[in-house]
Amino acid sequence: MELEITELRLGLPGRDGCDSGLNSSSNNNKNEKKRAFSDICDEANYETNGERKINPTKSQVVGWPPVCSYRRKNSFNEKDRVESSKMYVKVSMDGAPFLRKIDLGMHQGYPDLAMALEKLFGCFGLSEALKDADSSEFVPIYEDKDGDWMLAGDVPWE
Amino acid sequence: MNYFPDEVIEHVFDFVTSQKDRNAVSLVCKSWYKIERLSRQSVFIGNCYAISPERVIGRFPGLKSLTLKGKPHFADFNLLPYDWGGWVYPWVEALAKSRVGLEELRLKRMVVSDDCLELLSRSFVNFKSLVLVSCEGFTTDGLAAIAANCRYLRELDLQEIEVDDNRGQWISCFPDSCTSLVSLNFSCLKGEINLTALERLVARSPNLKSLRLNRAVPLDTLQKLLMRAPQLVDLGIGSFVYDPSSEAYIKLKATLVKCKSIRSLSGFLEVVPCCLSAIHPVCQNLTSLNLSYAPGIHGNELIKLIRFCRKLERLWILDSIGDRGLGVVAFTCKELQELRVFPSGVDNAAVTEEGLVAISAGCPKLHSLLYFCQQMTNAALITVAKNNSNFTRFRLCILDREKPDPVTMQPLDEGFGAIVQSCKRLRRLSLSGLLTDQVFLYIGMYAEQLEMLSIAFAGNSDKGMLYVLNGCKKLRKLEIRDSPFGNTALLTDVGKYETMRSLWMSSCEVTLGGCQTLAKKMPRLNVEIINEDDQMEFSLDDRQKVGKMYLYRTLVGPRKDAPDFVWTL
Fold first, then answer.
1. Is the ipTM of this complex over 0.90?
2. Of B346, B385, B398, B418, which one's alpha carbon is 20 to 30 angstroms from that of A32?
3. Which residues of B fall within a CB distance of 8 Å from A71?
């Protein structure tokens, strides 16, 4: 009974993912207790809405601070990125002929990873279901190093 | 004047090397003009649109080394649309058609295509040196052409470039017969590199003095390269990721101890946030250290490293060093001449006025500064000015725009005023923080040697800009953004702009009408309006404020390669 609630299967690419699940062979995956995930998603939405303001806030002027774009892309704000830059993990989807690899260091949090996985596998409805976690029947799980199925969200993103 | 035969005068001119001096020499008389122009080997063109390649070649047929700059400085900060201009192909084409024996080409902020690099590599038998700074438009295919065809290549130096990396095989294109390399810098390339080919290249380059690697070169390769090139003077480390207990690391430590010639160190593009003790033996001889691309090195580790660098003359670092770290620099690096502190983007890691004051007190030889900081006070700047009147370059960027002195809540006019009054040899100045017209009054009064001034979010009225234009007699480049200067300031002394290289004004108060008036009065200026949105198309209203204006003196009229969104008035 517990397993049925927690298990998610991803249908073949193209389907709308009504019963969707994701298997992965290491401890990557958007995994989150329902409430924790929707909390995080809410947070992300808040930040996104902030950025979409029509009048840019003081911090968003083009070309400020005056750091050349090469330097911006290479060091500015990427301290964390550099440290975790080699976190490639395998992701598999039921029915897909081959696995994909994704760099966890490239993502800022679980919602971000959810979007990326969606794009990668072309399956829609995943992050929607997870955004509105309370009304979703599904919860993401992942398989960790020991081969156990774990409910996501216990381990902080960092 | 003609007491000596031409050959003797020419021989004397050989000792006159700076372009400025040679320009002066050429003005003395027709005979000296002729001797000088025929013997000049090195030409510097600060604005590629100020003159045509044909005229340069016509005047200096003996040209061997050409330096060209394209886009204005603010292009670095995304203020200029992508295809504004600065293509170097016409220059290379013209040089190729002529009989010029080009040996060296140095480009800054220009667009370089693969075709151009291919043409360059095939057209000049003795081509030796290619230096590209902040350029764009080419891929590693272009580099492959240079590697393959320039038989006597000595220098290939790429700085701050985003190259489209097709594959890492360009290194393999250096033929086995190429043994002349002195300087190889590919640290900005992002892709993989053929490591075996790189090792073989370094092994057959006995004159190699400068080697800067990209992040794809791992530690064990670095060790092998250092074994083959113990004579290196300048090293840029790519990847410094290792397991401290591994044999590779132990070997590297031993090898580094033997590299007694290294005076300049940079890179660490990928680094384990662990100890850098392997580097410590190299530090004692370093005169130049650039860790500004290494956000992975924590402040404490930086400080440990700095303690060994007693001979440092040039330091480029991230603000993660903190005020405390700058205190260590001030204590240790008594030979320091140039300091650049860049923002790491981490909020709590920034530096403040404290660090700067410490540096100015501890480093008497410091004359060049670029300092991104969280805040600055008038008192601190006044102290800095008292401690050090040697500054030739003083660029201060307070990250929070228009921020006043946090202690007094006053503008920073007095602080910058003290700097310009004290530093009589100041040639370059960048301002930031809350500033009124007063600071420009000081600059106009005291900054007699000022050649380049950068202004952002400063001033109250046209008076500010007028103080500068009237006062700074040696001004060559003025760049202004988001400041309330308008037509009155622009038009009061139109002749001034022919004494300058260029003027940039964006998001100011100048109108289309004002720019048109200027363009009409001064036919030897190109007044370009850079029009990103379609606003101007719909209303050719003179009162319309201009978003971006770039004007420069030129001998060849409006450029023919201007894209649609650039209007030359």
1. no
2. B346
3. 160, 292-293, 342
